[in-house]
Design brief:
The structure is a homodimer. By secondary structure, the first copy, chain A, is of the alpha/beta class. Chain A is built from 13 helices and 12 strands. The first copy, chain A, has 3 domains: 37 residues, lambda repressor-like DNA-binding domains (434 Repressor (Amino-terminal Domain)), CATH 1.10.260.40; 133 residues, Response regulator (Rossmann fold, 3-Layer(aba) Sandwich), CATH 3.40.50; 121 residues, Rossmann fold. The two termini of chain A are 45 Å apart. The structure holds a DNA duplex.
DNA sequence: CTGTTAGCGCGTTCAG
DNA sequence: CTGAACGCGCTAACAG
């Protein structure tokens, strides 16, 4: 294992100078900087981040706490994009990342979690997939022992930023587009999970639209489940003439139901992911750049760790039309 | 942050003594041991694993490298069991775990990966989901710079153990049972991925059975895809009278196809997971204890790190019958 | 601008 | 059986 001392010797400078170079400190002359960089290359030196974390007060070890949607099929593609986006950006920024899953934390108190994270020298945390019922994680955030970035939940304080798209206007836009393209006035809205944050932001978008366009709005909770969306559509699809879903997966469930019922209703979804599709159905959707979002979250955490204040960061989205073909996987 | 010194002061001993107690060194008197343990409890002391990793030569930081089956729906439940099994055991053993995914390593050379892992003070690695085409990871294993435990791939050397069930006899057993229960002599075997290790071990089981029972064996590769299994069954289901699949997911695809074709053939699967099912179809399967398997893998890695030699560890399985009901999710 | 000195929190000798 | 002393690899203050 080649250490900073080896590099120092090889370059004919002190270890601290090497440290200054690799950490991009300002006060280093061009000449020695180049000498050191050359030595680093030649020895294939990679700084030991464990030692750095121990030494530096100002370190950047970060935990990514992810709630994988194990129940809802196919969502893992999105999860993967979140995870990879965050981790790639972290590597770019020289931040160490530890990935934790919600299920690992189950049954632990916020104190226990705090101690564990401290024992890992973790100072910053990104949370993805938080629902209103994750009380312990809410405690953790409220206690402000770490810097946080929460994705897709409007939680904020001095130490906590949130990043997400504007779900309200995203839902508004895609539904409006679908209605204008098809003409309809009775909307079945299949919402997400009752305990999810984005669920109600999106409902707000629908309510605004309903008011503006004078629509009859029928809101049901589909829990992001294809099956549930199918059931809801079987029951209430006929009496409405537009079906708006809070996810593509549910849109597929709805389309499937309509196929079974042998009637047509325009359907739109949300996420713009390439899910396993069905039945040659064209579906409007809201496409988010998931990996971009989580990369932004990592950046935001970085600025928080460097003294930034918690704030809200809003990312863009685009409307897309997806043509689901007859593929199951 | 409460450190080992605080505990030492609180217990009226030296820091090194505390260290000996928490690391279960033999030469500590009962009395001081209890004093220290009391202090640890009272101060809620959790050792800083980063510092421990730095100090100890003999440390236990471990990477879990996972190939998530993003393409195949619903397999994530199994992935989660693997991950949680390994991590829970690691916590029990006081080992730090870093979870990496294959996609993070894509495009990196084994040298780069080695340097990265060394920079993280990682000494042991568990790999799950390895296929024959993951050349870089094979290099990594061959170079023997770390201790390895490979799950479900028969790779072994001084530093490398593998743990898995006996796929050959598992496949043999479940197929035999299904055939005996139903009587049949022409078997359509829908195998897994062409580049997967377990695929060929299971095929061996089928070949042995075919020889013993004098069966006609029709082997096709379903790539663990429900759709592919459905297609294969549509094409070749009728001409055979038993359908054996290398995964439950494919068994469901086969059952679906048989439903469409409106014919009956006994079907059996593999994994014994609770997948999203279909059509009230009874399917024999081989149930593995995934979290137990990965927990075993972590234990095995632990013994490797403590001087054990690489070896093969075989875990048990059970035959089960699963009744897939009409649920989609 | 550079090198020296002191730790970070812990594990590990080695006297006592 | 216990504790003082040293060092892991690195960063941070301070001299020079």
């Amino acid at each position: 294992m080649v250490s900073i001392k080896d590099v120092a010797r090889h370059a004919g400078v002190a270890a601290s100078t090497v440290s200054k170079v690799i950490n991009h400190y300002p006060n280093v002359s061009r000449a020695t900087k180049e000498k050191v960089e050359k030595a680093v290359k030649e020895l294939n030196f990679v700084p030991n981040s464990v030692a750095a974390a121990l030494s530096s007060k100002h370190t950047s070890r970060v935990a990514l706490i992810v709630n994988l949607n194990v129940e809802a099929q196919a969502v893992d593609e999105i999860d993967m994009r979140y995870i990879s986006g965050a981790i790639n950006k972290a590597m770019e920024l020289g931040i160490d990342v530890i990935t934790l899953f919600f299920f690992m934390l189950r049954g632990k108190s916020s104190e226990e979690i705090t101690r564990y994270l401290k024992s890992q020298s973790i100072t910053g945390i990104i949370i993805y997939g938080l629902s209103k019922e994750d009380y312990v994680l809410h405690d953790l955030i409220a206690e402000q022992n770490f810097k946080f970035v929460v994705i897709d939940a409007p939680l904020m304080n001095e130490q906590t930023s949130c990043v997400s798209i504007d779900h309200t206007s995203g839902q508004y836009d895609v539904a409006k587009k679908t209605i204008l393209e098809n003409e309809g006035d009775k909307v079945l809205y299949i919402a997400g999970k009752k305990n999810g944050y984005v669920t109600f932001e999106r409902i707000d978008g629908m309510k605004k639209l309903a008011e503006e366009m004078d629509l009859k709005l029928d809101i049901r909770f589909g829990e992001f489940s294809e099956l549930e969306a199918r059931k809801i559509t079987l029951e209430h699809g006929e009496e409405n003439n537009i079906i708006v879903c809070a996810s593509d997966l549910m849109a597929i469930g709805a389309a499937k139901a309509l196929n079974e019922m042998d009637i047509f209703r325009p359907v739109c979804g949300f996420d713009g992911a390439m899910l396993m599709g069905y039945v040659g159905w064209k579906i409007n959707s809201v496409r988010q750049d998931f990996s971009g979002l989580s990369a932004k979250a990592m950046e935001e955490l970085y600025t928080l760790l460097n003294g930034g204040k918690g704030r809200m960061v809003c990312m863009p989205y685009t409307l897309v039309q997806i043509d689901y073909m007859d593929v199951l996987i």
